[in-house]
Amino acid sequence: MGLFVADEVKEGLVTLSPDESHHVARVLRMQVGEPIALTDGKGTFGNGTIVHISNKKVGVQIESLSIQPKNEPIVHLYVSPTRTTERTEWLIEKATELGCTSICLLICHRTARRNINLDRYEKIAIAAAKQSLNCYFPEIKLITNSKEAFQSGLGVKYIATCFGEGRLAPTAWPVNSTEYSLFIGPEGDFTTEEAEAAIAYGCIPISLGNLRLRTETAAIVGISHLRLKSY
After folding, report:
1. What pLDDT, in 10s, does the model give residues 116-139?
2. Are residues 78 and 157 in the same domain?
3. Residue whose C-alpha is closest to residue 219's, from 104, 70, 123, 135
4. In angstroms, rounded to a whole number, what is the distance separating the alpha carbons of residues 35 and 52?
5. Could you mention a single GO BP entry for this protein (predicted)?
């Protein structure tokens, strides 16, 4: 059973949006009487049954409600947009599937592409959340001041960089927290000034291994490591 989105998921009759109704009725050709699951993207999960289908509206009778546990640990990803839109879109999709709480597109000195379509990325994130049965949609943000991002990051803050000595190897990352902020720079890495500012604001410099990784690959490696090490 797939997962679908409604602005409000509550007991009783819920009417899906025109876009979601079209997907249910015209694309998937679901029928009255079929079971369906809804979420509001904020943790609410509702089991129900389709009771009405028209040209632009699908009505769902919600029979049971629950609040799903939050994805843990909480991971806030701060990542520089990649040179091509397609790679950033892929990254948004995979970071959502891995349960990131927020994904912040971080404009750094060496960021190659600064034209950011947040609406497009939000749609990709919602589609990925539905596919992975994730009832918590990540917040998609844009920050153009890297120092502001380093300062405002929540939880334990890690910065993946080639800068300086003493970077922690993946096996040495402390993972005893329930919340992390992970900073991934652009191709060419953060500048020395950016890395120094991050460390001054409490970011812990880390290594992702001895191979040179693309931005999107580095982000997935970092997120996966935090998620798996915490189980």
Report:
1. 999 999 999 999 999 999 999 999
2. yes
3. 104
4. 12
5. rRNA base methylation
